[in-house]
UniProtKB/TrEMBL annotation:
BP GO annotations: positive regulation of hypoxia-inducible factor-1alpha signaling pathway; positive regulation of protein sumoylation
InterPro entries: RWD_dom, RWDD3, UBQ-conjugating_enzyme/RWD
PROSITE patterns: RWD
A Pfam family the protein falls into: RWD
Entry keywords, A to Z: Cytoplasm, Nucleus
Source taxon at top rank: Eukaryota
Name of this protein: RWD domain-containing protein 3
Transmembrane segments: none
Domain RWD: from-to ranges: 1-86
Annotated localization: Cytoplasm; Nucleus
Amino acid sequence: ETHGITFRIQISVKELLDTDVLLKLLFHLPVNYPSTLPDISVNSDQLTRAQCMDMKDKLLEQAKKHLSEPMVHDLILWIQQHLKYVIKQSATVCNEKTTLSKGTSAEDGIWMLLLHLDHMRAKAKYVKTVEKWASDLRLTGRLMFMGKIILILLQGDRSNIKEYLILQKTSKVDVDSSGKKCREKMISVLCETKVQSQHKRFQTFEVKEYSTLDELQKEFETAGLTTLFSEFVPPLLK
């Protein structure tokens, strides 16, 4: 009722050389859909990350044409008919897209996300998954462990941050008490904001463990995030 609904669709589409491309589409429909555009994620083992991102951008462009009317079915039909052209274009407009994305980045800026996880039962697999998502989406930051506190701090393009959140909330990243794969239900978005001039940009994504709260605090202070730490981290200890 408050978060809308999310669903996955897998479709097989003929590509340029008449080979089948399996597309994994994820749609998150907010509560006020279709007055608000859905969040869309595109994945395929047969396409590059850049091609998937390009396809996502094209789908969002199409979605804007259908604002205020149900659109998911139309978007699926559109991608079935236009996939090969999108892939072909993806190579030819590479330079142009780089220029455009720089323009978008300047306008939208770099964003930051701070998440709190309640627990990780399958820790090794979970950590590996988070590292892969951060790498695929070109996000930097930290996965931080201190006692029972688990925090994920991410920096990157706002669209990639949003896509990370969709993956985090809808993928089976952990196991439940009986050992069955499950989605992450115990996650809190502590903060989502634009990176300011006083904030230091992380150059990589790292997994770090801290033995004391002071060590964790220093990590935040070094990144110019003292206020973020004092506002959100101490309350987690209560």
